[in-house]
Design brief:
127 residues; rod-shaped; mainly alpha; 0% strand
Length: 127
Amino acid sequence: MGAERKKNVSKIQTTYVEQQEYAEIASARKRKLLLRRLSLFLVFASFLSYLMISSYISQTTKLEAKVAQKKKLDHQLSELKKQQDILKEDIIKLNDDDYVGKLARKEYFFSEKNEIIFNIPEGKKEK
């Protein structure tokens, strides 16, 4: 029975009711525009966050590679400085005639007058 009855209800046509209907329509439009703006802002903020995070990760990776390269080059530099010091010492030694004479006798088996050179092979030293 309740489903069969139709209620005949009419709206009151006053300015107050019309103002309230317009206010509801305007409020619905404002909510719809606000949701659109917020969703657009969310998309923009997400895109900007993605760009910033990906940039940060790539910069971090590059920085780690540069730090590793710097460490490797620092090690090479210290090795080259050691080699340079050794070469400077060799230059000083090669300016000494006695050292050059000893080196020539040792490496090239040159001898002075009345000097006999014995070549002793270097092997395992016995205890």
